[in-house]
């Protein structure tokens, strides 16, 4: 699919062979804050998730894509479309590049741009939104570089490590 292929990487649907990568990522506690997770996932549960990942975004309101390098097809992360609302023509987006060695190489920006293009072109959305905690400067920089604008603040929205954090609400609305 041309829409999901870039210069450095491509995005693809989940495969059963992604189980170990998904297991490691979903059980990495540092990511639980942004994924609203508080308990580990078993491989059994993740296998069931993978077996249902083929379901249509219009049915389940979400789509998870694997971010892979063009050169060797290795996985570097995931990008998710969630809370898809075809009536109001909007969808949320979240992204994670898992390995420190794969960060700051432009993968996240390229994957985000490819995903936004896909959502506008194939899902016919009017806007894409994201929630970013106030202390996640890397994500703030990424989304602003991709053209997202901060349009609001959810005060004391995320409770993490005994403290509340604000979450910024970002939107990408072309021609607004």
TrEMBL record:
PROSITE patterns: GNAT. Pfam families: Acetyltransf_3 (PF13302). One of its GO terms (molecular function) is acyltransferase activity, transferring groups other than amino-acyl groups. Transmembrane segments: none annotated. Residues 9-174 form the N-acetyltransferase domain. The keyword Ribosomal protein applies. This is Acetyltransferase, ribosomal protein N-acetylase.
């Amino acid at each position: 699919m041309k829409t999901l292929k870039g210069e450095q990487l491509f995005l693809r649907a989940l495969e059963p062979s992604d189980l170990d990568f998904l297991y490691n990522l979903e059980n990495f506690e540092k990511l639980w804050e942004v994924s609203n997770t508080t308990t580990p996932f078993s491989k059994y549960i993740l296998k069931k998730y993978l077996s249902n990942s083929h379901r249509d975004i219009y049915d389940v309101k979400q789509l998870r894509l694997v971010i892979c390098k063009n050169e060797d097809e290795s996985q570097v992360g995931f990008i998710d479309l969630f809370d898809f609302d075809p009536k109001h023509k909007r969808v949320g987006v979240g992204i994670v590049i898992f390995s420190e060695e794969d960060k700051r190489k432009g993968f996240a920006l390229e994957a985000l741009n490819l995903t936004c293009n896909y959502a506008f072109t194939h899902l016919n959305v009017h806007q894409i939104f994201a929630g970013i905690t106030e202390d996640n400067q890397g994500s703030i920089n990424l989304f602003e570089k991709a053209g997202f604008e901060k349009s609001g603040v959810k005060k004391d929205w995320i409770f993490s490590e005994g403290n509340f954090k604000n979450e910024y609400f970002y939107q990408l609305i072309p021609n607004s």
